[in-house]
Design brief:
Number of strands: 7
Oligomer: single chain
Order of helices and strands: HEHEEEHHHEHHHHHHHHHHEHHHEH
Distance between the termini: 50 Å
Length: 445
Amino acid sequence: MGGGGQLTEQGETGSKRAGCVYTWEEVQSHSSRTDQWLVIDRKVYNTTQWAERHPGGFHVISHYAGQDATEAFTAFHPDLTFVRKFLKPLLIGELAATEPSQDRNKNAALVQDFHTLRVKAESKGLFQARPLFFCLHLGHIVLLEALAWLIMWVWGTNWILTFLCALLMTIAQLQAFWLQHDSGHLSVFKQSRWNHLLQKFTAGHLKGASASWWNHRHFQHHAKTNIFRKDPDVNLFNIFVIGATQPVEYGVKKIKHMPYHRQQQYFFLVGPPLLIPVYFQMQLMNHIISRHDWVDLGWSMSYYLRFFCCYIPMYGLFGSVALIIFVRCLESHCFVWLTQMNHLPMDIDHEKHKDWLTMQLQATCNIEQSFFNDWFSGHLNFQIEHHLFPTMPRHNYHLVAPQVRALCAKYGITYQVKTMWQGLADVFRSLKTSGELWRDAYLHK
């Protein structure tokens, strides 16, 4: 988040214009890649030259170009006072007194009530982490990894024990993913640098991934959930058509890259089995190399060095490679189903400029609470609360959920809670429904 010549120049320009006032129409006209303004608490900022330096990635800033980013800014940053220091050189003015605080006719009362809910949650200490919770979570990951290795070392490498070992490693990998996810959202420690270090360790040394790659991808998903061309999780490279809008658009334009009316079937072949072992691996290596992120590369390689040192003596090189591929495949199945049941069956569309609460509730649903669901999904069965308050420690989601549900009821916003089995089945059903919409539009429109 350093300065640099461009930032200084922009700061000097900004200081000269800080007394200017603007209308929403003027702000919205600055929404291109080379000209980006945004509004936070009625202050207008020119982020054009600084966006590339944004720790959360350029895209998160660009997704809010020409818009009010107040709610997203508040949601992503646990220490607002510290972050505002970096906004001062970017300030170019404020909204005119005659302009509303929210853009595009958002419900001001709803926005204010949600802000009040957040303030109450903060006053109750719901944004304070319990260190013991995360220590125990890290401990049980290490225990699972050690147990998997000890089973093979003591009792041998027959097929049954190998499968048991792979299962334990898969669970450990999944739980390590949830922990790096927590630290990536700055919800474990008060100090950001400790969160960053924990994420480097969990994403890199425990999983062989890249913390930087994940953050640059995942923050976009949170900033504009289920919005085409902004949320990378719904950018499916023409392999699937999802939601109710995209299938019809593709059908009308006679786009047929795949037999989309059968996508609920080939999903089982190219979705869960390949996401982590193929697609994610290609993405994260491209991110590391293109950005010269040798620190993340070192952390990632430390995982593979540890893994092969542990398992080559028992399986040999070929067997060890086969084992890690099998574990990645199992992990990928769990990850895809657990993450997509909260989003894929929900509303997926182009940018509609909704307020934070409405956008997240339309794109997200919860899964029923139970000890198993909480543990196995990393508390992302409370996906609604996680998306509304991404920096809140996950062990507090259930405490804020009743207040969120009440606020949704007040404004007639649907708050969906499903069983685990219903959530999993809805992934299949949503793909089938979207495929049928595409076929109908392709044949008849």
